[in-house]
Amino acid sequence: VLGNQDLQDSIKPQKVEFHSLNFNTTLHWQPGWAREARDALYFVQYKVYGQSTWQNKDECWGISSHVCDLTHETSDIQEPYYSRVRAALAGVYSSWSLSCRFTPWRETMIGPPIVTVAHSNKSITVKLQAPRSPYRRKRGSKIPMTNYYDLLYQVFIINNLLDEQHRVLVYEGKDKVIKIEDLRPGVSYCIVAKMYMPMLDHSSAYSSRQCTVL
Questions:
Q1: What region holds the Fibronectin type-III domain (predicted)?
Q2: Confidence at residue 163, expressed as pLDDT on a 0 to 100 scale
Q3: Given 92, 102, 141, 200, which residue has the most CB atoms within 10 angstroms?
């Protein structure tokens, strides 16, 4: 039987990390190495860097999950945050496992834009919509990520006759509607796009493909 100290060490959460996409921010961790750790419950706290007191995250207090949503708690996106997690099993509590410092504005990943395409016989019109943050305007609509960063749309065309993997950049800029002209009728084209942030030199993943035959 494990002694208390051994049990404390063996259920201590591992790899406590923030994951964030478009400011939707969750804390993830892995259970301790003990087989019994599968049955542990977890307790999450957070604070802004420089504050002396930790805040309990009530919805993640005594949970069996290994994920905790901290979107609301990290909404001041320029502030650096820390979080920490401890485990409890059979009345024994582990010590706290600390995350790295997390600053939403610097570290959130930007998602791809939403792309819709319409075509005529020789051109494709592409409509782009920036990803949205979880934060809402007073009227209730979600604030787009373009409000927080200087973002550009990058639009790529794939000519399926030539090579399905070969993407050609046809537009970079801020327009939400662009027209790609002088295309060949009868040919299948696909459009993908991503968001690009020049200041931090970050790109989003590619959007899903939108394909059309002229």
A1: 7-96
A2: 73
A3: 102
* 176, 127 Cβ separation under 8 angstroms: yes
Q: Could you tell me if residue 23 is left (phi over 0), alpha (psi between -120 and 50 degrees) or otherwise beta?
A: left
Q: Are 34 and 10 in contact (CB under 8 A)?
A: yes
Neighbour-count burial of 152, counting CB atoms closer than 10 A to its CB (0-12 exposed, 13-18 middle, 19+ buried): middle
β-strand partners of 21: 24, 109
- Angstrom distance (rounded) from CA 142 to CA 22: 11
Burial of residue 191 (CB within 10 Å: 0-12, 13-18, 19+) is buried
Confidence (pLDDT) at 37: 84
pTM summary value: 0.88
User: Looking at residue 161, what DSSP letter applies?
Assistant: T
**All domains in the chain, ordered by first residue:** 4-106 (2.60.40.10), 114-213 (2.60.40.10)
For the chain, 214 residues long, the average pLDDT of each consecutive 10-residue run is 77 97 98 88 97 97 97 96 96 95 96 95 95 94 95 94 84 97 91 94 94 90
Per the CB < 8 A criterion, the answer to whether 75 and 100 are in contact is: no
